[in-house]
Design goal:
Layout lengths: L2 E9 L12 E9 L1 H5 L3 E6 L18 E3 L4 E3 L15 H5 L5 E9 L1 H11 L2
Antiparallel strand pairs: 1-2, 3-6, 4-5
Length: 123
């Protein structure tokens, strides 16, 4: 099974990735396969149905990717970088007592894409 997603990253003339502004638009296409996962690709995370809505995950997310949803918390995959750029491991997974935060197979991204996403969120 192959999943394809297209992300638009806007690159300014000074080579800094900036969200929603910049003179040059470049599309980055990522193809997710099981082989890519085996090669160390990372994924955005998701919260499964085992969530107890304890709120341990939301305050530790450096990208503010976690929000209250129905019936439990949800992770915005366009903001989730698995803490690449901020921490050594996903802080939500560390904080979660229910062990309900898992990889989102619909959003497999390389380390470079996750770092660019993190930098675009924090510049």
């Amino acid at each position: 099974m192959v999943f394809k997603y297209r992300y638009t990253i806007i690159v300014a003339a000074d080579s800094v990735v900036k969200p929603e502004i910049g003179p040059i638009r470049r599309s980055v296409e990522t193809t997710a396969t099981h082989e890519a996962e085996a090669k160390g690709s990372k994924m955005a995370l998701l919260i499964n149905e085992d969530c107890t809505a304890c709120d341990a995950c939301r305050p530790v997310c450096p990208n503010e990717a976690i929000a209250v949803g129905e019936p439990a918390y949800v992770i915005n995959p366009l903001r989730c970088t698995e803490c690449v750029g901020a921490e050594d491991e996903p802080q939500c997974k560390v904080a979660c007592p229910a062990d309900c935060i898992v990889a989102n197979p619909d959003f497999v991204e390389s380390q470079e894409i996750l770092l660019a996403k993190y930098e675009s969120l924090h510049t």
